[in-house]
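If your schedule permits, I should be very grateful for your opinion on a structural question. I have a record of one protein: its chain in single-letter code and its fold written as discrete structure tokens. Would you kindly read the sequence against the tokens and tell me how you understand this chain to fold? Thank you for your consideration; the sequence and its tokens are set out here.


***
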Amino acid sequence: FYNDGNGKNVIIETANNRLLATCKTSQIPNDIKVIGEGSFYGNVSVNNIVIPDTVKSIEDWAFAYCSNLENITIPDSVKNIGHSAFLYCSKLKNIDIPEGTEIIGKQMFYGCTSLTSVNIPKSVRSIDKTAFYNCTKLNDITLSDNIESIGEHAFYGCTSLTKIDLPNKLKSIGERVFYGCTGLKSLDIPNSVETI
């Protein structure tokens, strides 16, 4: 249990500095290495989070259903972001994925209906299924040149998406990746693609 003296409390597994649970006034201590599974799940009081550069990993569901979260700063020290990490963070507007991340996990931004832009670094090799499902305001996304696969329904229902350049190393495009992307009028499939 950690208390910063100002009523900002968290529960920490001290053996490996893993953040386990938070309360509505939580602040991430500077010695945390892992933001544990579901540690901020459903925390509707948090609207701005700065993750310290001691953090190496954000586990599954870590910030899921933080419906008032508008801004989050993730340092380059983070190399792994689990699936559904930002599921239904409906007020999150933009995010920079840290360099070193290789996979945009399934449902990572599912239902983030205010998300307008995402910066994907060159380290990303794969976008998993339903990663940006129903991100209805997403209109600015640049895919890494090193992405080799995009999973099924990855951009399903992204109605504000008008343009997307697929990388030349892309080999696999899943089922209904751009289904419901009514603003997307054309799409160039690179010669590298082997399966659709």
Notes: Confidence is low (pLDDT under 50) at residues 1-8. The two ends are 49 Å apart (CA to CA). The chain has no helices and 15 strands. The longest strand covers residues 9-13.
